């Protein structure tokens, strides 16, 4: 676990890529953490499930923790996830539960996946104990400054071409190992095509190459 979060921007590529079907926006990729995509939909879902208390930094931490758990071979059975889900739903009817999830843009299957990942992360935390808190804490002032500017950018407070260019110039050194900030819009004819594009991004396909296609 040493060093996996000592400077999280090394692992983070910020992408403002929108996947649209005609004039309808399907989703937007807001970041890629070690090759794993975080979409705007996922971001909003996690914020909803946290009661609005989480910020982008917390979500990136969770993605990194889950990736570390996978590297450690930590897994959870579907029976364990189902048991946890039954306990959570105990005071709700199926309709009430689905309605509550819908408020956060979640389906039951999406919630189950979130729950599975949470249990996996919790098992990692239990195994590693205090070592994780020490390793993922962002202490460096420069890193914190980068994060705050990154959050401002992601929140849309400065999404102009000039703003993006200035952000990149200011932190070019920090981003050297992570790739570069890319702004693009990919228009596709169907959700199926959008899903294919997402899969290609996950496999490491160049964003620029996909945009040209």
TrEMBL record:
Q: InterPro entries annotated for this entry?
A: PrsA_foldase (IPR050245), Trigger_fact/SurA_dom_sf (IPR027304)
Looking up PANTHER family in the UniProt record yields:
PEPTIDYL-PROLYL CIS-TRANS ISOMERASE HP_0175-RELATED (PTHR47245:SF2), PEPTIDYLPROLYL ISOMERASE (PTHR47245)
Record-given protein name? PpiC domain-containing protein
Question: From which source organism is this entry?
Answer: marine sediment metagenome
